[in-house]
Design a protein that fits this description.
This protein is α/β, with parallel strands linked by helices and about 375 residues long. About 40% of the residues lie in helices and about 10% in strands. The chain folds into three domains: about 100 residues, no CATH class; about 80 residues, no CATH class; about 170 residues, Dna Topoisomerase Vi A Subunit, Chain: A, domain 2 (3-Layer(aba) Sandwich), CATH 3.40.1360. The mean pLDDT is about 90.
C-alpha cells in the first residue's frame, strides 16, 4: 500500500488533525506539548472505538509508520511480550509539523501579535526565564519592525542604567528615535534592570499658572488652552480669588503632579509674580494641604472622566458650577452636538465622579440628552 493511500485513511486523518488542534491551542496559549498527547478514545477514536481487532492493528501499524517517517515520536510503557503498543499508554510528540499539515491540507496557523512577541522574548531577550515571563506580557509594537528586532533593542537597556535620562530619552535611544514606546512602561523597565522602580523619570508635567494680584483662596483647573487664555485676561469677577491652572487632558490628574520632580510650574507674566504668592501655590501643590479646588472642562464623558481622575490627586475637587451652568443650560435648551458629530464616539459613559454636582446634574443631563458641549462655546 502506498504512503498516499494509507495517509488518507479517515482514522489517520482524524489523528493528525487532532494533533494539529492540540498544537495550535498550545501555541496560542504560549505553552508547548512537552508531555506529548495521550492516545485514547478521545484523541484516537478510530483505533480505540474500532469494533474489530484487525482495524485496531491496522491503525496502530499506520501510527508506527508515522514514527518511522519521522513525523511523530511514539512513547509507550513497558508491557508483556506480544502486547500491542496501543495498550501501553502511548503518547505522541509532534516532530514534523510541516509534513503533518501537508498530509491533511491545513496551512500553518496565523499566529497572533502576542504569540510572536512571546516567541521573540524567549528567543532573543538576554534575561532569566522568570524575567522573560514578565516581559512577555508587555508587548511593544513599532510599525514596520518585527518583534525580534524590538526585543533585541531591549538588551541594550542595561547600558543606559546609570545615564541621567528621562524615560522618553531612553525610548528614543533604544527604538530608532521613537520616544514614546516606553510611555507607561516603567514597570517593564524596572523588571529588565532588576530594580524595584524605574530609574528613569517621566517628563515632568508642565503647568501653566496664573496667580491673581490679590490673595487667592482656591484653585481652578481649566482643561482647554483657549478658555485658560480667556480666563487669565478676563476683567469680570468670575475668577476673583482663584489661581488658574492649565493642565491639558489627564496630565493634571497624575499623582506625580504633587511631587517636586513630577511637575514644572510656569507662572504667567500677566498675573502676580510675587514671591509670597508663588511660594504659597507651590507649597500647596507639593503637599497634602487642602484648598478649595475646582475643575472646568468639556461637558462630555471625557471631561467627567478627567474630573473623576483629578480627585485621586486632589480629593476635594469639584466641577466648577460657574463654568458648567451655562453649558448645562445649553444642553437643556436642545443645543450641543452628538458624539458622532464631534468624533467622540469612543467615549464611554461615566456613571459617577464622586462630585455631588456633577453626579446629580451634569451626568444625568448627558445621559438624557445624548449630547455634549465643548468648553470653548463659553
Amino acid at each position: 500500500m502506498s504512503a498516499l493511500l494509507w495517509l488518507s485513511h479517515p482514522g489517520v486523518q482524524a489523528l493528525l488533525n487532532y494533533l494539529l488542534d492540540r498544537l495550535d491551542q498550545a501555541q496560542a496559549q504560549g505553552t508547548s506539548l512537552a508531555n506529548g498527547v495521550k492516545l485514547n478514545s478521545a484523541s484516537f477514536p478510530g483505533l480505540y472505538k474500532a469494533k474489530f481487532e484487525a482495524e485496531r492493528a491496522e491503525l496502530w501499524a499506520y501510527t508506527e509508520q508515522l514514527a518511522l517517517l519521522g513525523w511523530i515520536r511514539l512513547v509507550v510503557d513497558r508491557g508483556s511480550v506480544g502486547q500491542p503498543g496501543y495498550e501501553l499508554r502511548p503518547r505522541v510528540h509532534v516532530v514534523s509539523e510541516s509534513n503533518i499539515r501537508a498530509a491533511v491540507g491545513r496551512a500553518a496557523r496565523i499566529r497572533s501579535s502576542n504569540e510572536l512577541w512571546r516567541e521573540a522574548v524567549f528567543t532573543h531577550l538576554d534575561s532569566a526565564d522568570e524575567v522573560r515571563q514578565i516581559v512577555a506580557a508587555y508587548r511593544l509594537e513599532i510599525s514596520g519592525r518585527p518583534a525580534h528586532e524590538i526585543v533585541e533593542r531591549l538588551n541594550y537597556l542595561k547600558t543606559l542604567r546609570d545615564a541621567p535620562l528621562y524615560l522618553r530619552e531612553v525610548s528614543a535611544r533604544l527604538f530608532w528615535a521613537c520616544s514614546k514606546i516606553l510611555d507607561k512602561r516603567g514597570q517593564l523597565v524596572s523588571v529588565l534592570l532588576g530594580e524595584r522602580t524605574c530609574p528613569f523619570p517621566e517628563i515632568p508635567i508642565q503647568l501653566q499658572v496664573h496667580l491673581p494680584e490679590f490673595e487667592f483662596t482656591g484653585v481652578l483647573f481649566i482643561e482647554n488652552i483657549t478658555n485658560y487664555e480667556r480666563a487669565i485676561r478676563a476683567e469680570s469677577g468670575s475668577y476673583t480669588g482663584l489661581a488658574l491652572v492649565f493642565a491639558s487632558g489627564f496630565k493634571g490628574s497624575s499623582r506625580r503632579i504633587r511631587t517636586e520632580n513630577g511637575a514644572t510650574v510656569f507662572f504667567a507674566e500677566c498675573g502676580s509674580l510675587a514671591v509670597d504668592a508663588r511660594s504659597k501655590f507651590l507649597a500647596w501643590l507639593r503637599s497634602d494641604a487642602n484648598m478649595p479646588t475646582w475643575f472646568w472642562g468639556d461637558l462630555d464623558y471625557a471631561g467627567m472622566e478627567i474630573l473623576k481622575a483629578f480627585r485621586n490627586s486632589f480629593p476635594d475637587t469639584a466641577a466648577w458650577k460657574a463654568g458648567y451652568e451655562p453649558m448645562l443650560k445649553e444642553l437643556e435648551a436642545g443645543g450641543g452636538h452628538t458624539a458622532e458629530e464631534a468624533g467622540k464616539g469612543t467615549q464611554r459613559q461615566v456613571t459617577s465622579t464622586g462630585c455631588v454636582y456633577a453626579d446629580r446634574a451634569l451626568l444625568p443631563a448627558l445621559k438624557t440628552t445624548g449630547k455634549f458641549v465643548d468648553q470653548e462655546l463659553f
